[in-house]
Amino acid sequence: MPSTTARRLPKTPSPDAGPDVRRVRQRLLKWYDAHHRRLPWRAEPGVAPKPYRVLVSEAMLQQTQVATVVPYFGRFMDALPTVRDLAGADEQAVLRLWQGLGYYRRARSLHAAAKVIVCDHGGVIPDNVADLLKLPGVGRYSAGAIASIAYGTRAPILDGNVARVLARLTLIEQPIDAPDTRKTLWRLAEELVPASRPGDFNQALMELGALICTKANPTCDACPLSGQCQARVVDRVASVPVPAKRKAPTLVHHHVIVMERAGRFLFEQRPATGLWANMWQLPTAEDLPAKANTSELSAWAADRSGLVLSDTQHVVAFTHQTTHRTIRFNVWHGLVTSGRLRRGAGRWRRLDQLNDLPLANPQRKAVAVLIKEDPQQHG
Ligand code: SF4
After folding, report:
1. Rounded CA separation 313/309 (Å)
2. Ligand 1 centre and the CA of 226: distance in Å?
3. CA angle at residue 102 from 96 to 104, to 5 degrees?
4. Which residues of the chain have pLDDT under 70?
């Protein structure tokens, strides 16, 4: 272990960081054994983890809370219990299983990764970081997590929880996402992960960040690393980690135009690339002004679908936040009075017959509002 990082680890009388690294490992693993949560993708002690379950759970857990993932994971495993089942599934079926979980690119990448695993690896998920990194959607964090948790390969991980714990443990006071900080944190994670039980150690770091060393109000008194934590020693836990400098999200306006004919509604598929790729939606104009009027909306709808609307009215507005955008949704409703649906312009559905169309969260919200507004007409 390089002495520069080693010296930054625990605050102890000894300049030799070796014993301190050992202490971090020992304390963390002991705490993990006693306190870790039983989760459906985690193997019980003494039982070998199933790599496919690790692969799927790691994809679902990116940017998503454990409690949100649990029911999705169960449904996904019931529907697609093996990597071969996933590889052979229709993409729309995979997106439907993911519907509501958000960040749908993860689902498409996981699906593509399963195909590569079946085609190039005989259906066996790779056990090393280099091969895992070649899979679609698998970055350094996921590769380390899968290799260490599923196979016991000594590989580090660094996600938001781990970065926070390590920044506090070693008192890193530079912005958490600065390239130099990331390099330091990765190096530290690499040095800390033990050869024995690397998967448990990595999960312990994540678990500590999720349960004890939380962003606000960490419970340092219950922390197994409190005696080693430099931020605690100098009373700067509240100011570490230093937040990333982010650009303010761009505000954009989407107009959802609910086109109704005889109790059925038009749905269209999004393009194969970009936000919510290949998912379905009520016809949505993304290039009209924020204050578009009903004439502009009707003209857009006619141009898009070949159908003529009348009595177009505003139904509801709401805001949806993505990583880089604040999207203001305005939902409008109009009755189709004439025209013929253009080939490929969409499909008609009743609002209670949408099981075959994966919808992103704001579209589900728009549908829910329509059903609530007039259950007799729309339900
Ligand atoms: S002592 Fe507090 S700040 Fe330090 S690692 Fe533990 S919970 Fe986090």
Report:
1. 11
2. 5
3. 65
4. 1-19, 374-379
Q: Which one is catalytic: 44, 58, 207, 268?
A: 58
pLDDT at 129: 98
| Catalytic (active site) residue 191 | no
Which two three-digit tokens encode residue 127? Answer: 């056990």
Q: How far, in Å, is the centroid of ligand 1 from the Cα of 66?
A: 21
Ligand 1: atom nearest CA of 240 is 3
Which of 169, 211, 235, 242 for a ligand 1 pocket mutation test, highest count of atoms within 8 Å of Cβ?
169
**Cα–Cα distance for residue pair 245/267, rounded to 1 Å:** 39
**What's the confidence (pLDDT) of residue 329?**
97
In CATH, which of 1.10.630.10, 1.10.340.30, 2.60.40.1730, 2.60.120.260 is domain 3-239? 1.10.340.30
Q: What is the dotted CATH code of the domain comprising 250-378?
A: 3.90.79.10
Q: In three state form, how does the secondary structure of 128-145 look?
A: CHHHHHCCCCCCHHHHHH
Nearest CA to ligand 1 atom 2: 220
